[in-house]
TrEMBL record:
Superkingdom of origin: Bacteria
Limits of the VOC domain: 7-141
PROSITE patterns xrefs: VOC
SUPFAM superfamilies in the record: Glyoxalase/Bleomycin resistance protein/Dihydroxybiphenyl dioxygenase (SSF54593)
InterPro entries: Glyas_Bleomycin-R_OHBP_Dase (IPR029068), Glyas_Fos-R_dOase_dom (IPR004360), GlyoxalaseI/FosfomycinResist (IPR050383), VOC_core (IPR037523)
Signal peptide (from-to): none
PANTHER family, per the entry: GLYOXALASE DOMAIN-CONTAINING PROTEIN 5, GLYOXALASE FAMILY PROTEIN
Coiled-coil ranges (or none): none
Protein name: VOC family protein
Source lineage: Bacteria, Bacillati, Actinomycetota, Actinomycetes, Kitasatosporales
Length: 143
């Protein structure tokens, strides 16, 4: 890994209950929890879940939105969901995640094909919502 390449570091998702949201992303999606106990103890402002060694999802409570003052007007857009976040997985992990979500009765869309993304056309993709309504897309590319 080099430090001179642009990468996606994190995405902030607005959630009602960060601990419950972390539990969903750990149990249903299979991501690694970060700082959940520290958040529950009041030591940090929000927990996160790790997507890969370089990228995390921050699970910010809606009450945190009024703190978004990094630029003039930032608080006005805080708390609004993004359209969706897309996770790219290997084909076998794609199948495992889809099955796990269905086992846990998380509604998923039908499988789509040839949707365009960062690496061209994905072989397959599907969507689901987390308990806070954030839309997650999952895809895989032929390697």
């Amino acid at each position: 890994m080099t430090n001179n390449t642009t990468r996606l570091d994190h995405v902030v998702l607005w959630v009602a209950d960060p601990v419950a949201a972390a539990g969903f992303y750990v149990q249903a999606v299979g991501l690694e929890p970060l700082r959940v106990s520290e958040f529950a103890e009041g030591k940090v402002a929000f927990p996160s879940v790790r997507v890969n060694e370089e990228t995390i999802l921050d699970l910010a409570p809606h009450t945190f939105a009024d703190r978004m003052r990094m630029l003039p007007g930032s608080a006005d857009g805080a708390g609004h969901p993004v359209n969706h976040v897309c996770l790219s997985l290997p084909a076998d992990a794609f199948d495992i995640l889809r099955a796990r979500l269905q086992e846990q009765r998380v509604p998923v869309t039908s499988v789509g094909h040839d949707s365009f993304g960062a690496r061209g056309k994905a072989t397959r993709n599907f969507y689901f919502r987390d308990p806070d309504g954030n839309v997650i897309e999952v895809r895989h590319y032929d390697e």
